[in-house]
Amino acid sequence: MAGSLKRQNRHIPSHIIMLIWVFIVLFPLWVLLINSFKTRLTIYENPFWIPKQWNFKNYVTILRDGDFLTYFKNSFVVVVLSLVIVTVVTSLAGYALASWKSRFSSFFYFLLIAGMMLPIKIASIRLLEITRTLGLLNTIWSLPPIYVAMGIPVGVFILTTFVREIPKELMEAAYIDGATSWKVYHMIILPLIRPALATVAIYNLIPFWNDLWFPLIFINTEDQKTLLLGVTRLFGQYQTDWSKVLAVLTLSAIPVLALYLTMSQQFIKGVTAGAVKG
């Protein structure tokens, strides 16, 4: 009994740290949510507590009178398309690099993951010229190629490492049975790397969804704007209706939270893979 109590007391500092971290994470979400139900003036009275009178007009106005649904649709299409391409390309690249027995495989691997150390924003002017040449300027289709380039380095890094952890005997047995490389990838590799794919998707979802830099540079047409770029319309020169801004941001956070909750188990498996041996 005494040993059990000692072990429990040993975890108390960890629990305290976790509680503090939970508060730090949830407090901005709390402020975001409760202030989205206040009016433009009452938001300044007590910004950290629930409103005296709940105001749903912010959400009604945004959904009915604004272009929120158009902005949301544009962001959704861009992000989903980018994530699908990133996960497919990086899973194929990870499988190829993990199976490629050559002195050049390490060179191509480090060449791909070098993008993790080079911020893509430094090439914004050149990317703008390329986008204009391709005729994609002022369209949402100018964004997926940029996001795919952003997501490939970390995706290759995670998935190549994950595929290398898969026992070689599984693939060798499949080859002996007459399976092609494509069938091995489809029947063996993909089911086993599902946690890593979830990790790559969630890791890239947030910077894709929250990106304002490239939509601001590439898109001026109103019906092609993404969600965060559309939010900038609510910022006035002399005053800003923060309650409506927070309402839009609350709605924009729902897809990120929904995807994380849907894939949380796979995400945890992916980030903890290899932490326990045996």
Structure notes:
It is a single chain. The chain is globular. The two termini are 30 Å apart. It is 70% helix and 0% strand. Helix 3 packs across helix 13 and helix 4 crosses helix 10. It has one domain: Orthogonal Bundle (MetI-like fold). The longest helix has 32 residues. With 278 residues, it is mainly α.
Topology, please?
Layout lengths: L1 H9 L1 H24 L21 H8 L3 H32 L3 H11 L10 H10 L10 H21 L3 H9 L4 H12 L1 H16 L3 H6 L8 H5 L10 H31 L6
Helix pairs in contact: 2-13, 3-13, 4-7, 4-10, 7-10, 10-13
In short:
The chain is mainly α and 278 residues long. Helices cover 70% and strands 0% of the residues. The chain has one domain: MetI-like fold (Orthogonal Bundle).
Taking pLDDT < 50 over at least 5 consecutive residues as the criterion, the unreliable ranges are 274-278
- The class by helix and strand makeup works out as mainly alpha
Please tally the β strands and state the result: 0
Span between termini: 30 Å
**SSE order, as H and E?**
HHHHHHHHHHHHH
Radius of gyration: 23 Å
The percent of residues in helical segments reads 55-70%
CATH topology: MetI-like fold
Can you tag this structure with a few keywords?
single chain, 278 residues, mainly alpha, MetI-like fold, 13 helices, 0% strand, globular
